[in-house]
Amino acid sequence: MAIPQSPHTPDGPGGRLRDARLFVTQAVQTFRATGALVPSGPALAHALNRFVDERPDPTAPIAILEAGSGTGPVSRAIAAHMRPGDTLDLVDPNPRFAEHLRGLLGTDPDLSAVADRVTVHESLVTDLGTDRRFDVIVSGLPFANFTAEEVQEILDYYFAVLRPGGHLSFFGYLYTKQVKAIIAPRADYLRQVRSGWVIEDWVRRYGIGRERVLANIPPAWIFHLRKPEEGTES
Ligand SMILES: C[S@@+](CC[C@H](N)C(=O)[O-])C[C@H]1O[C@@H](n2cnc3c(N)ncnc32)[C@H](O)[C@@H]1O
User: Fold this and answer.
1) Alpha carbon of 212 to ligand 1 centroid (Å)
2) What is the pLDDT of residues 110-161, one digit of tens each?
3) Whose CA is nearest to atom 11 of ligand 1?
4) Residue ranges of the Methyltransferase type domain (predicted)?
5) Could you tell me the distance, in angstroms and rounded to a whole number, from the CA of residue 207 to the centre of ligand 1?
6) Ligand 1 pocket test: which of 92, 147, 157, 170 has the largest number of ligand atoms within 8 Å of its C-beta?
7) How much of the chain is in helix, strand and coil states, percent to nearest 5?
8) How far apart are CA 68 and CA 98, in angstroms?
């Protein structure tokens, strides 16, 4: 079968293969920021959409932020779950990924159907500013590669722009700490332990659910957090 040649054609094996190729190239060049070797699979993308589907008011449109969109596997799933009036902001500082995402707005069936309500930002998520508010944040950032201070800054930012009662879903990969304990330099292992403590602290305070997604390469965990309504935090 001939593989379509358009740089952004997403459908079928040709498009998915090109997405994966771009992701792998960028992962090799910028592993600390990319944090994975292959894009997320459909099971993980679907599970990250939980609070795009479960809404307090099913008739009210919501504002969705996806941080670290990469080649867009989760963005496409979000687009497929969006309802009339919903908006979606996609953020990735990698220029190759941002260009790819802009292309998908014209070619991917799900993203093009909502393209007038999707904005692509080529920036760090924390540079988006605090004047906007979101009901749902889906984060693909590779926290396991970040320092504790960076993770704290990003989680603080998410909760600054999340509406009270809003949800944050983020993921990481199972067993990275155990693998690092064996093969990584000690300083890198200890950095991940410290950033893990920051995540545990947020999950302890705001966590409302955790999932394992074994049908992903590599297998992943997801944490779902909820920002308390104003005046209800203990
Ligand atoms: C593990 S990849 C996830 C990509 C995609 N969401 C997926 O599931 O396949 C992490 C992505 O986060 C982006 N990223 C890293 N640091 C970021 C930051 N501070 N703000 C926004 N995106 C960031 C990287 O460029 C990369 O595309």
Assistant:
1) 20
2) 999 999 999 999 999 999 999 999 999 999 999 988 999 999 999 999 999 9
3) 68
4) 65-168
5) 22
6) 92
7) 45, 20, 35
8) 10
